[in-house]
Amino acid sequence: MGFSKYPIKFGGRTETFTDKQGDSRVRWIPETEVKGVAYDTPIAGYRVGTCDILRLWKAEAVESFDFAAFNHGDYYRAVQDKLVSENITKVLYPNDEVDVGKELRLKQQFFFVSCSLQDMLRIHALLGGKPATFHEKWAVQLNDTHPAIAVAELMRLLVDEHGLGWDEAWLVTRATFAYTNHTLLPEALEKWTVELFGSLLPRHLEIVYEINRRFLDEVREEFPADDARLARLSLIDETGPRYVRMAHLACVGSHTINGVDAAPLGGRQQPGSHAADHVEHR
Questions:
Q1: What domains appear along the chain, each with residue ranges and CATH number?
Q2: Which of 24, 39, 81, 145 has the smallest C-beta neighbourhood within 10 Å, fewest atoms?
Q3: Computed from CA positions of residues 218, 221, 222, 224, in that sequence, does the dihedral angle turn out positive or negative?
């Protein structure tokens, strides 16, 4: 039975404020919130005296029953929040050919990432660690683009929740993540429309924009007057409708990248070369 619970926010808006030290900060005011509840499964080793833990996450409603709606005869709305919240973790990888499937898939990706990172930071603190030393004790492998939102979420947690400055938080974030790129086929490199991304995760879109601004400034210094390169490397695809490129976010936010595909047309490449070729700045 789970014991760790974390708030997972969606939608809403952000606002700036000045903290007690006089620094400008950002507060995320969500439209909805669910609870991420941990459930542990023991994984016993064979003929050894150790036992590992597989920690899984379930989404639950903050309030499972609306008595006001029930008393007014609206029996469906009385349990609607519970049903909607639990849908996040009932069926993984929903069909994303329709808009409702895209939204649910992005919710799922963020839910699992946020639960895990909040749990890691909690355990790190229990062991006496500080947010600024998180990368010294924890390593996170991004397996393809599904968990790539973790880059923006760790930045949010470090900057907004734990009060680190941007530069310090970025150092910790890049030292924490490594990325495995599975393919370079365009249809397999995950992208989210800016509209959907911003409506579900408004604070994270702001963070992605800031990561992109700083990254493109570095590219301009290295390759001046090369607008085509800037367009290729940008975390935001602006060739048509604007998209957030999750593979680009994973590459920029990781200290190491490796690939697993064989080269096209029967050729062979050294392990790790694909992603490095794809994101030219690495």
A1: 5-278 (3.40.50.2000)
A2: 24
A3: positive
Whole-prediction pTM value?
0.86
Question: How sure is the predictor about 263, in pLDDT bands with cuts at 50, 70 and 90?
Answer: low
Round to whole Å and give the CA distance between 126 and 114.
18
Write the single-letter amino acid at 184. Answer: L
Query: Cβ distance 150 to 142 under 8 Å?
Result: yes
Pairing assessment for the beta strands 177-181 and 140-143 based on DSSP bridges:
parallel
Taking CA atoms, 229 is separated from 121, 220, 222, in Å, by 37, 9, 11
How far is CA 83 from its chain centroid?
Answer: 24
The residue with tokens 């924890």 is 138
Q: Count of CB atoms within 10 A of residue 205's CB?
A: 21
For residue 145, CA distances in Å to 47, 181, 214, 215, 217 come to 37, 8, 21, 19, 24
Write out pLDDT tens, residues 12-51.
Answer: 999 999 988 888 899 999 999 999 999 999 999 899 989 9
Q: Are 222 and 249 in contact (CB under 8 A)?
A: no
Tell me: pLDDT of 74 over 90. Answer: no
Strands 24-29 and 243-245: unpaired
